[in-house]
């Protein structure tokens, strides 16, 4: 163990003293919490747009627009309304981001070939498994966040949870789990895989720059969102109380029949505005943390080697 004074001259070496798993978990959790809080208003607007037809069943089948949803929240609930449902989301995102990002690194090791090479299929499989793992761990909080976000008036997380348990039973916390797993698997698979491959193709001198991570994260998130958004709309409508859909095979034709194909992309604009910076912040912070950890390990090894040479 090097002297404290020596470590203070090389602060990055201190990171090497922290177990890498702990550092990666902390990086994923912190990045996810900040990103979700910053983009919470757009997330709530997206949820209201996605679930409007189910919430207004029997009253109106006309969709609600982005501007209308923004105005409705401000008029009825004030500024705080834009962050309604954010607490359970932040509570959820801490373990969610940590499990997702860390398990992706673990699954990449699992899917490596014997020669150490990780194929495109291996990256996709690792991303899909990471997405499903994190979703299974935190799914009840996601359902609770949705219920709290789409309810009008003022309520608390604990009150909504108790009402759900009393009126609908434990199963209500897992409504829409099937399409959620089906939706998150390809999204995370495509997002993480494209991010990794793009970073891999970047010239070595640019790989460690934050702006490189930010640009590749934006592009990978855009591509993944365009591909997978319809399944997100399906699962949100299946999570709603009183939903007429029991399976994904009921939901897709039902939404198309009632709202047209555009119904599957309802809320896409606020989702894209929220998801792109959210995903970019999360991946960039995590990638930067990995670079710092790697640099810290090299600095510690250098210090240890120098000390060994002095004593020999």
UniProtKB/TrEMBL annotation:
Pfam families (alphabetical) = Mito_carr
Q: Tell me the superkingdom of the source.
A: Eukaryota
Question: Does the record carry Repeat as a key word?
Answer: yes
What InterPro entries does the annotation carry? Answer: MCP (IPR002067), MCP_dom_sf (IPR023395), MCP_transmembrane (IPR018108)
In the UniProt record, which is one GO cellular component term?
A: chloroplast envelope
One Gene Ontology biological process: transmembrane transport
Enumerate the Solcar repeat regions by residue range.
19-110, 118-201, 208-292
Which keywords are on file for this protein?
Chloroplast, Membrane, Plastid, Repeat, Signal, Transit peptide, Transmembrane, Transmembrane helix, Transport
Q: Enumerate the Gene3D superfamilies for this protein.
A: Mitochondrial carrier domain
Q: Where does the record place it?
A: Membrane; Plastid, Chloroplast envelope
Q: How does it sit in the membrane?
A: Multi-pass membrane protein
Q: Which SUPFAM superfamilies match?
A: Mitochondrial carrier
**What is the residue range of the signal peptide feature?**
1-23
Family to which the UniProt record says this protein belongs: Belongs to the mitochondrial carrier (TC 2.A.29) family.
| The protein's name in its UniProt record | Envelope ADP,ATP carrier protein, chloroplastic
């Amino acid at each position: 163990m090097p002297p404290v004074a020596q470590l203070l001259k090389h602060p990055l070496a201190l990171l090497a003293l922290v177990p890498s798993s702990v550092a990666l978990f902390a990086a994923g959790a912190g990045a996810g919490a900040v990103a979700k809080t910053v983009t919470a208003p757009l997330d709530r607007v997206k949820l209201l747009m996605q679930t409007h037809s189910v919430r207004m069943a029997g009253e109106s089948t006309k969709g609600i627009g982005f501007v209308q949803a923004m105005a409705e929240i401000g008029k009825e609930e004030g500024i705080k309304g834009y962050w309604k449902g954010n607490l359970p989301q932040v509570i959820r995102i801490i373990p969610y981001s940590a499990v997702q990002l860390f398990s992706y690194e673990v699954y990449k090791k699992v899917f490596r070939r014997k020669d150490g090479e990780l194929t495109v299929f291996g990256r996709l499989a690792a991303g899909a498994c990471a997405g499903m793992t994190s979703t299974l761990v935190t799914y009840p909080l996601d359902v609770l966040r949705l219920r709290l976000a789409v309810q009008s008036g003022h309520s608390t997380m604990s009150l909504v949870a108790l009402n759900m348990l009393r009126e609908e039973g434990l199963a209500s916390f897992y409504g829409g789990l099937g399409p959620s797993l089906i939706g998150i698997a390809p999204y995370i698979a495509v997002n993480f895989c494209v991010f990794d491959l793009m970073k891999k193709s970047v010239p070595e001198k640019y790989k460690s720059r934050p702006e490189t991570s930010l640009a590749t994260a934006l592009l990978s998130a855009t591509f993944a969102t365009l591909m997978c958004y319809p399944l997100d709309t399906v699962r949100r409508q299946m999570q709603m109380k009183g939903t007429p859909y029991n399976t994904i095979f009921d939901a897709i034709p039902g939404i198309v029949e009632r709202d047209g194909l555009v119904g599957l992309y309802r809320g896409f604009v606020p989702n894209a505005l929220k998801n792109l910076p959210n995903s970019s912040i999360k991946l960039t912070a995590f990638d930067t943390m990995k670079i710092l950890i790697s640099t810290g390990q090299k600095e510690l090894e250098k210090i240890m080697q120098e000390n060994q040479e002095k004593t020999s």
